[in-house]
Every structure is written in structure tokens, then in C-alpha cells.
Amino acid sequence: MKHRNPTQKRTNVPGGQSSFRLPPDVSFSKQSLPYGWAYVFRHRTLGELGRIVLEETGDERTHLSLEVVGDPADPMTAERAAIFQPLGMELAQRMEAMTGPAPAGSPVTPPRRTPEPKELIESRLIPCERCGIMLAMLIFAPEATDAGGFEDYARKMYPEYTRLDLQTWIIGPALGSGPLMDRPADILKIWPTRAPIERQRPVEFNSMLDRLVSGHCGL
Question: Burial, 191: exposed, middle or buried (Cβ in 10 Å; 0-12, 13-18, 19+)?
């Protein structure tokens, strides 16, 4: 996506009155942290991109940092960085222009951060019923209601499913109404190769898993 686009939307710069153009698929929200504030940027299909973190140093100054989310080894991290970093740098410069740069010869020391709460994500390993070797991993994503939501789960679980190196699917929430076993869900095949998000009913997905298990040791 190009940073300058005729269809970009105009929004308020965090902390200021001037306007700033965001790409059409990017939005941001303000988030309270144990040690300050963050402006979190999201992309419609890539999920969370990164954040601008503002931390009080205790000497009436503010430490500002730009943080791209994701494992450096994840190819998607570079895609997120390509969109977020130009936006973050421009906004950071605008914030500094409003507050003024730090005095020369007095570098800002980042404050010690309070650990942020860790998120627990439910997952399940599928073993071969004969030899017990693990064949697949299922990641349950109850908050994944769009492509960006699926990418959030893929990003957070990247170290785990790449370490296990199993076929891995992310399963979204059941859709519609009625008995749970009759309701379809959006499913993303994420590893070892990606596939488009596909909507399947439990019987269809379970049938595929059964074939995977039965084909391993010729059950």
C-alpha cells in the first residue's frame, strides 16, 4: 500500500489539533498501559501493526518509542513495518514539534516498564492414534471476526507453531445460530503454507482431520 493515496482519510494527530492523513485501511486507538499510554495502529487485513508508546520519565519529560509488533523472523512483520514505520515516524516528529525536543546533552533514559498482562490463547495438538506422533495444531481464535483478527492470532502464535512445525489451522468463532455442531466457522491454514480463509462446518473440517490422522500410520 502506498503511504500517499488520494483516498486517505483525515484524522486528528494524537495529542494535537492538526490533521494527519491515514491510509484508508489503517486506524488507531489510544490504550492505557501500566507505565503510560500507547497509540495502537491497526490494518484492516494485517491486524495490529505497531504502536507509539509514551512513558513518563519522572523528570517532567516523556519518552517516546515506536514498536512494530511481531517476531522478526515472521515475514508478515516486515509487511507491517513497511506500513507502520513511516506513519509512526511522521507522527512522532509532529509530537516532538509540539512538546519540543529534549535539551542537548541530557538524553532521556527509558523508565523501567511494569510487565504487561500476558494473553492466553487456547490451542490443541492432534496426535496419530497409533504412534502418538503429533500431526497438527489447532489454534482457537474466538475474537477473530475478520482477516485482521486472524492475523493477530497468527502473529501471537508464530513462535509456537514454527517451533512445532506441524500443520496448523486457526479456527474462528462459530457463526450463525442453532446447534454448535451445525454452525460453520472461518478457518485459516497458517503453516507450513498459508491458504485463504475458508468457511467450513465442523463435519467438513473434522473429516479432513480424520483423513490426516488415518493416513499417517495407515489406520
Answer: buried
Phi, psi of 41 (to 5 degrees): -105, 135
The CA-atom distances, in angstroms, between 218 and each of 130, 132, 167, 210 are 9, 13, 18, 12
**Each residue's pLDDT tens digit, 8-19:** 444 554 544 456
pTM, to two decimals: 0.82
Give just the sign of the alpha carbon dihedral 15, 19, 21, 25.
positive
Distance of alpha carbon 98 from alpha carbon 17, whole angstroms: 10
Cα 5 → chain centroid: 24
Provide the pLDDT for residue 54. Answer: 86
Comparing CA positions, the residue from 16, 14, 72 lying closest to residue 41 is 14
